Amino acid sequence: MPAKLSVNLNAVAMLRNRRDLPWPSVTALGRIALAAGAHGLTVHPRPDQRHIRFSDLPDLRALIDDEFPQAEFNIEGYPTEDFLALVERTQPEQVTLVPDDPAQATSDHGWPFERQGNFLRPVVARLKKRGMRVSLFCDPDASEREIEAARGTGADRVELYTGPYGGRHDDPAGAEIEARKLGITARLADDAGLGVNAGHDLTVVNLPGLVRAVPHLAEVSIGHGLTADALEHGMAATVKRFLAALQG
């Protein structure tokens, strides 16, 4: 079965936030994406609300519940108490925990699972107790020891950071090297009983290579490249293009 597509709406929200106006509507674009076949929506609300605002979350939760009950809501973030309270109020199907500093422009590395396992374990347990699937952001070349430590947190999945792979968009040989790293880490995760998600700088062009490297990929979360394509092709057509690319 092809990996599921979750559309990250942060770039849409960032464009909206350039003006004190309600457009482009995050909810309206989310509706178009889901109607076109996307399997879910992703947001990464940061403390400064520079793109997704906390006030967007109830609207997106209601959109899925009322119109697309088969879809999933995925919320990413660093597990501060404020973030955890936010997701507990919103009740997404999946929470993806990232090790970002609040000032970072975007996620750019995975968790050091061995070093921070004791920090992550109670957070994962808290979220799972409330019925949420938990995914942990993971380096593309994580070692077997690191993957075992990730499993030890009680998480359900890891999300492979695909930034280095996406960054080789003009270097096919380099992209192949990065894809092999992702494939090795994904196999380690699969062997450990962890589901495998992926995200960062994924495009229609590089998705087939990722799918070949990670044949048991469960889900991809895509924002920047998908939103850029939507400016040219429209959101509905773009979602269909990405779904086709996930066929490999």
Give me some keywords for this one.
single chain; 248 residues; alpha/beta; TIM Barrel; globular
Number of domains: 1
Share in β-strands: 15-25%
* Gross geometry: globular
Largest sheet strand order: 1-2-3-4-5-6-7-8
Structural class: alpha/beta
Structure notes:
With 248 residues, this protein is an alpha/beta fold. It has one domain (4-245): Aldolase class I (TIM Barrel, Alpha-Beta Barrel). Helices cover 47% and strands 16% of the residues. Strands 1-2-3-4-5-6-7-8 form an 8-stranded parallel beta barrel, surrounded by 6 helices. α6 (144-152) links the parallel β5 (133-138) and β6. α2 (26-35) packs parallel to α3 (56-67). The longest helix has 20 residues, at 172-191. It is globular. The mean pLDDT is 96.
Helix and strand arrangement:
Elements: E1 4-8, H1 10-16, H2 26-35, E2 40-43, H3 56-67, E3 72-77, H4 81-90, E4 94-97, H5 113-129, E5 133-138, H6 144-152, E6 157-161, H7 163-166, H8 172-191, E7 195-199, H9 207-213, E8 219-222, H10 224-233, H11 235-245
Parallel strand pairs: 1-2, 1-8, 2-3, 3-4, 4-5, 5-6, 6-7, 7-8
Helix pairs in contact: 2-3, 5-6, 10-11
Structure described in brief:
Helix content is 47%, strand content 16%.
